[in-house]
Amino acid sequence: MYSRIAGTGSYLPERVLSNADLEKTLDTNDEWIRTRTGIERRHIAAPGQTTVDLAEQAARRAIEAAGVSPSEIDFIAFGTTTPDLVFPNCGVLLQARLGVRGCPALAIETACTGFIYALSIADKFVRSGEAKCALVVGAETLSRITDYADRSTAILFGDGAGAVILRPSSEAGLLSTHLHADGEYRDLLYSRGGVSRGFVDPETGKPDIAIRMAGNEVFKIAVTKLGAAVDEALAANSLEKSAIDWLIPHQANIRIIQAMARRLDMPMERVILTIQEHGNTSAASVPMALDVGVRDGRIKRGDTLLLEAFGGGFTWGSALVRY
Ligand code: UT7
After folding, report:
1. How far, in Å, is the centroid of ligand 1 from the Cα of 170?
2. Residue 180, φ and ψ in degrees, nearest 5
3. 173 backbone dihedrals φ, ψ, rounded to 5°
């Protein structure tokens, strides 16, 4: 028994923040941002628009694409680092929006790897027969924890949501998932505020929940860990690099994505690239890129997809998928 992606959906908030907009308030420029990151614009949630608001739109599109009704959903796994509330978790909030009652609904807080973790967990529930129609979401409002006075991070992040429906199938679907984490790297990429630690910086006495990142160090470790994850996924499935039809990477930096494509001997034409339009949307980036590739017709049934992500923690992982 496999789990198979029956439908995909995504949603971007309307407001666009371009590199030119950022030039007006920060000591930065479009050329630097484009060449160092690949980002041209990102979407920002409206005031009051929450992570679950974005997720609901993406989920409804995935449900429609899968041809199921919300009442069939019997498992919800929701990857996010920017939840609406401390609790109930975003999975439960989304469940209520969709009018689903009684099934398990959980949120997974593994930063940019949130969707891959959620997918891996849902896959196990579907393959074991415990779930027959799983909704898997990655959604973020990173703009809420971005310090727009810090040029090293303000240029990177955006908001959005992506979702898939997983159903059981006797035909190959998800071939493997591999998950990793290493808290030794916790100080290289993190948000300073938290419920238990407090939202006020003890040193300055000021509220502080913003993302902090040692970008260059994160970059180098991301390339190494993702490279190993790509090799691991291929080896576990006894597949050659040439077997991968599409790379669907976490969209953090175009240079990291290019390094992964080179490792797979893939031309960039075989990579679903959304970073220029979306920026880094953390847990939302992989399911949004997947949905873009499916809806514009590039990704076809039977194609072999390699999904990968890397984020704060560090956490990282892959999913090898027969679409
Ligand atoms: O999603 C989770 C995982 N995240 C990632 O994988 C992100 C990994 N890191 C990165 O993508 C890159 O490290 C960044 C895009 C964040 C930064 O690029 P970089 O090539 O590593 O730049 P850098 O931090 O080494 O900085 C190079 C220079 C510095 O100036 P000096 O010291 O050489 O004079 C920075 O001050 O670029 C400067 N700089 C900027 N200049 C213009 C940093 N940010 C900016 C900016 N505009 N926005």
Report:
1. 46
2. -145, 155
3. -135, -105
